[in-house]
Amino acid sequence: MSDMHKKNPEEAWDNRDLGATEEFVRKVSKDREKALDEKLGLQIISVRLQKSLINDLKKLAGENGLGYQPYLRQVLTKHVRDEKNKGDKHFNLGNNALK
């Protein structure tokens, strides 16, 4: 760790100077992955998207420091939250995931 990182490690983590290389990555077990999905209320789905849309999502996600799947989850969550907040009486969600 450099002297700059020792003085301000939080900033080094935030701007990805620390912890963003493959040496810090490891695959978790299927059990831990399942437990995490359960804890976060996540469910695996399959959806077909145009290749050009996926490429655009990957570019936008990269600009935001994310993979395209977490980025897509953010985009969808924001869209649904915005629609829900419009107060449309015809739009009634059955779960509390977006409160």
Write the layout of secondary structure elements.
Blueprint: H1 3-7, H2 9-14, H3 30-40, H4 51-63, H5 68-85
Describe what you observe in this structure.
This protein is mainly α and 99 residues long. It has two domains: 44 residues, no CATH class; 55 residues. It has five helices and no strands. The mean pLDDT is 84.
Outline of this structure?
The chain has helices at residues 3-7, 9-14, 30-40, 51-63, 68-85. It is mainly α and 99 residues long.
Distance between the termini: 41 Å
Mean pLDDT: 84
Given as residue ranges, the uncertain stretches (5+ residues, pLDDT < 50) are none
Strand content: under 5%
The main pleated sheet reads as:
none
Number of helices: 5
Give the helix level as a range of percent.
Answer: 40-55%
Alpha-beta classification: mainly alpha
H-E order: HHHHH
Shape: extended
Rg, Å, rounded: 18 Å
Tally of distinct domains: 2
Q: How many strands appear in the DSSP assignment? A: 0
Keyphrases for this structure?
99 residues; 0% strand; 5 helices; 54% helix
